[in-house]
Amino acid sequence: MIVRVLARLRYAWRRQGPLGFTRLAGRNLVHYTVGRRRGLSLSSTEVSFDHEFGTDTAGIREIGSLDVTDLAAARHAVRYEPSSPQLVRIALEKLSIDLAGFTFVDFGSGKGRVLLVAASFLFKEVIGVEFSRELHEIALKNIARLPSHRVRARGIQSVHGDAAAFDLPHSDLVCYFYNPFGPPILTLITERMVADHDQKGHEFIIIYHDPRHREIFERTKKFTILDETEDTLVLTTLRESESTRQITLPHRSRRCGAQVGAGA
Ligand SMILES: C[S@@+](CC[C@H](N)C(=O)[O-])C[C@H]1O[C@@H](n2cnc3c(N)ncnc32)[C@H](O)[C@@H]1O
Question: Is residue 261 included in any domain, yes or no?
Fold first, then answer.
């Protein structure tokens, strides 16, 4: 564990330089301190999540136990294991952009826990794509149970299908991956993002939890690191102005305002 953390810190230092590294470290310190003060330990929020909403998002489902074993994509799939709601909330709260211009996509959305959390932010739309029909149907029920006062996004949906065949929405995107699949599928999706960025000017923010195949994004040379914690990497095609520390959209000279993420 300590060796992993040190390796990540060394990597971040090399990539970001002294100034960028200090900025990342500062942001992480603030957010974790705030999280502690709120008394929201990861385990307590996970336990209370389903209890609070009457949803069913917990538990681990091995790929072999799901209705996908006949699908070719199952060879590259990682089992269902839900994200910590607190982890997702913190990652979204850190984004200093106007989320109303972005669609959120969870690739490999399982029972939809991440969708439920993202729906409490002001996204244009929240979409999950999940290749197990069984998990997708549980996600639909979970979405239906989410009280309307918790939904601030303009729409929320779970789509049943292979993420490799999913057409990216015509929008700037915040893409969430909790290590859902291996390199063949991640490469296809990354290539699609790069093509949309180059040809349509769409901007991307990638939140990659347990980033085992981060080199797939890195070798495109289109993404820079916006944030990095021990187990989550946040990348973007957006350019960050060093002087103002605000994110600017290069193709359209659009400037994003201050922090708008308002998680529940
Ligand atoms: C580690 S779980 C993450 C679940 C959810 N994103 C979360 O963070 O709570 C990975 C999910 O990806 C799904 N998955 C794996 N391969 C997929 C594919 N090719 N297309 C769509 N979903 C896939 C699995 O069924 C599983 O539900």
Answer: no
Could you tell me if 70 and 17 lie in one domain?
Answer: no
Residue 130, ligand 1, Cβ within 6 A: yes
Q: Do residues 72 and 112 both lie within one domain?
A: yes
- SS3 category, 127: strand
Average pLDDT of the residues of the chain: 84
SS3 label, residue 200:
helix
Angstrom distance (rounded) from CA 238 to CA 261 = 17
Tens digit of pLDDT for each residue in 7-54?
556 655 665 677 766 765 665 555 445 444 444 444 555 668 899 999
Which residue range forms the structural domain that includes residue 66?
40-255
Q: Kindly tell me the number of DSSP H helices and DSSP E strands found in the chain.
A: 7, 10
User: Residue 188 C-alpha to ligand 1 middle, in angstroms?
Assistant: 16
User: Which residue has a Cα nearest atom 26 of ligand 1?
Assistant: 80
At residue 16, the pLDDT reads 60
Q: Which of 57, 76, 107 to mutate to test the pocket of ligand 1 (most atoms within 8 A of CB)?
A: 107
Evaluate whether 71 touches 185 at the Cβ level (below 8 Å): no
State pTM to two decimals.
0.81
Number of folded domains in the chain? 2
